[in-house]
Amino acid sequence: MTAEFERHPFLLSVQEVVDFLGTDTDKGLSTEQLQQLRQTYPPNELDVGGAVSWYTILIRQLCNAMIFVLIFAMALSFGVTDWVEGGILAAVIVINVSIGFWQELGNEKKMEALKALSSPTARVLRNGENATIPNAEVVPGDIISLKMGDTVPADLRIFEAMNLACDESQLTGEAIPVDKSTANDILAPGTEKLATSEGEVGIGDRINIAYATTTVTKGRGRGIVIATGMQTEVGKIAKKDDGRKPGRSMNVKKYGPKMATVGAAKRAWDFVGKFLGLTEGTPLQIKLSMLAYGLFLCALILALVVFGVNGFKAPTEVVIYAVSTGIAIIPESLVAVLTLTMVTATAVMRKANVVVRDLSALEALGGVTNICSDKTGTLTQGAMILKKLWLPSKKVYTVSGSMDPNDPTAGTVTVTQPGAGPGEEAPRDFDQERTTQAIKFDVPDNAQPSQQNEQKTPEEQAEVTPELRLFLLSAALCNLATVRYDEAKQKWQTTGEPTEIALQVFAKRFELGKKALEALGWKQTAEFPFDSSIKRMSVVYDAPANDESGLSPENSVVFTKGAVERILDLCSHVGAGEAQQPISDALKEQVLAQMNDFASQGQRVLAIAYRPWVGRFNADQSKSDNDEQLRASVERDLVLLGLVGIYDPPRDETSGAIRECSGAGIKVHMLTGDHHETAKAIAREVGIIPTNMGQLPAAVADKCVMKATDFDKMTDDEIDAMEELPLVIARCAPSTKTRMIEALRRRNGFMAMTGDGVNDAPSLSSADVGIAMGSGSDVAKGAAKIVLTDDKFNSIVAAIREGRRMFANIQKFVLHLLSSNVGEVILLIAGLGFRDASGFSVFPIAPLQILSINMLTSSGPAFGLGREKASPEVMLKPPHDKKRGVFTNQILVDMVVYGILMGTTTLMTFVIVVYGANNGQLGENCNTTFSESCGPVFRARAAIFIELTWMILISAWEFKSIRRSMFKLDPRDTRRFPFFKDMYNNKVLFWTVVIGALSVFPFVYIPGLNTSVFKHAPISWEWALVGPFTLVYVIGIEIWKCVKRYWSILDDHAVVKGAWSQGQDQGEGKRKLAYSMSFSSLKSWKSWGKTTTNGQNSSPV
């Protein structure tokens, strides 16, 4: 909660804030004040959505289209006193609901465990005494103490700051920590006038405010709590999305009198559509809901047909037949199989550090067309590494093989010295700029060395030289970070600001870290902290005796680091030792050219300098009343020692993951808060944009990388008129990310948004699939449907791959279930023509036989199909059409073809047994009881029951591939007859088919169970029909598959690629790389197969 200030506290002085809140900076709040404030303000907690209650989950499972249909059929069965059939339907409903309920409840509990991090605390001043309390107990007016490493418990107005800086990347997206001050003389950006209103200054520029959930990276300070809970800036972002769709307002004054009716109607439809599952959910959920109601309508029509054929008489026997026909078209096990398949997928993904909070998101991943990704911590490691060091002697030190920002022992440091003379620019080594092996830079022809004259600049192992020693001395001592090895944890631990950590780690590589140097006698006498207005920091040290750097122990030394332009302006000389020379315009240009070279590679560039102080620096001087004058006298006549290039390295697996996305028809967009040039360089490095923008059409290249300010200025119509949406947007605000998602949606995109910060929450919730990082904020995780506990971008791609595998398997078992339903309906409708002596239709297959086939026979193989491994080409196809979903033309046509084939063969069996062998003896009341006259009908039903069972089971093997023969699933397999090995690869499917095939014998031959329950009788010679007709069905499937392959009909189209693809090599011959990845390879990106083609994806049919 927040106090109602007339003006925002960042515009007020400290005393004004203290007076308004009635607090005391020396004593804090009193006990009486605390009691009153606790009654006024709620706990200091973010409402990011608590645990979902069990009854809410249960209602969700019951409000399912397929469950509605089954409940209706159950009620009708009980209505005609068919207790057995009604009871079985009730059991089916209970099983379906239970499976979904327990799985979703388990997922919610696991997510709560994921969010249950260590309880954060705050150090407060109350009643004149310091205390540590839970964050939830903080109230406005509390005095909070901050130190390096603390998490800010609430929004604070800073009134004491000693070198204080906070990491606000999770809030603003800015990777560089923000230095804090206490003054309220904040200028409006771009002007020289003081800000007078809240709207003039963004939250990132209110440097006298520390925000809740941000962390202190250096220094210490104190602040007054001005806002808690949902009234903090973090809380405002968390509650920004109210979830209401546009056009639902009923505000008559604002939108006119018609809006009340229109808004009410739309809200009513939203409620009904949500209840029926027709307006909310993923494409698959909506399609299955539509399928259920469509099948329900078909069942009603079939029931009318049954009543019509029987003269609209409604005795119990006719009603049972009508219900049986309706049941035959309903895939009762579909909900259970679908849920179990998703449960299995989530279990596999959880082992691979992918937590699925919402089962529907897993299916949606298979249809993702665009990934909108944050950069920091997602595409990159979220840490900084010193990659390049340039010394004025033209030496360039390179750190390679290290992706751990904390480990000074990882990787190697080499040194090169290009052969450029003084004042000459060293020849640019384009190949050295390639920092990711998956990307090959396009080198201009005039920059490509000839084969005859190619001379590679020699690289040597770096050694400490006097020039390098002096540089490391300055970098290590002008530094507040610490680096140490934790023996207990067996890992390197660091504290401080990421940039300083990078410098300290580099110095530690040469055993010249700050701690080691101070142990040798270096003693700090003064510090001039980093000031964002002048962008530099300096320290003054007394040199020890016999120092190897050659500095006199009688003099103090000034060490300075900061922005290149600012340091360069203070330098009088460049270089160290004998190579030192006075600075000139030419040397300045050389230094700036080197800075631009590092910056173009996505690196943040800093300058390091020093200055010998004449005599010993008096410690009392550092307490001068005129700090600015003293600092100016210290930071002058500096000697430039070198430049460093520090960058936030991409994850090892990022480029490969982006390449796989490109091969799968998925476009990756980077939406980051970083600087335009840094974002552009990192995007180029990981393959999001090409190195040579000339490969893209001019209109696309111009807008490929945009600043958020430029993108935000555009209207929706202007954005929609763009040929392609930008691949990189820098300096993003939360609203920019949301607008990008809306623009993609208007282009029929189906997007996933990744993020970890609070600022990502609105876009995570508005995206089709929100993916949060496990190390991110609770707000982000609460808004996402999927959480990656390892924060790796390749885990996203693996999750998409798993989503596609699951979606393909859903297609297989949907085809498996519905084709059998079509066959059963054909059989029952044809059976209306079989009239017994009483004039009623005799069903060729009994109701319990149908339920047994649909639930017991079909469920096991369908679940086995759901566990099928991904095909080799699963990531070489475009995302599935979200409008068609599972029911593609191929699935629909196959369903009809196989259903007709199954219905025809079983109908022929019934005709041969009853009419061919028994002269059409249909008996009397054979739908309800067994008699001698019903013998032919009961034996025919048994034969059909076995046939249907075996056909359905064998079709599960056939549907391991919808197009390939089950006798040769992989055309690349060189084995002569791989059938048995291919079938046994999926052990669940194999054994469910084998056991299901054997289960027909007890059902047919156990007395009482056969005639009384299943309404069939043992068979003998009828086996001669069962075997051949089952074989005819298999041959029919193989012929249809062969037709599809030969004429290439109903096939999926390959991904269409242009001249350039994201993450794609652009080498000679346009070599295409593709690889298959399983979850076992999630923790390492070392194993992938290569396929060379002629510019087209090559995959088996």
Written account of the structure:
Residues 8-82 form the Cation-transporting P-type ATPase N-terminal domain. Its main location: membrane. With 1101 residues, the chain is an alpha+beta fold. Helix content is 42%, strand content 14%. The chain is built from 38 helices and 28 strands. The strands form four sheets. Strands 10, 11, 12, 13, 16, 17, 18, 19, 20, 21 and 22 form an eleven-stranded mixed β-sheet that branches. The chain has an eight-stranded mixed β-sheet with strand order 8-28-27-26-9-23-25-24, with helices on both faces. Helix 5 runs parallel beside helix 12 (334-351) and helix 13 (359-365) packs across helix 29. The longest helix is centred in the last third of the chain and has 39 residues, at 793-831. The chain is elongated. The protein starts with 13 loop residues before the first helix and ends in a 54-residue tail after the last helix. The relative contact order is 0.09.
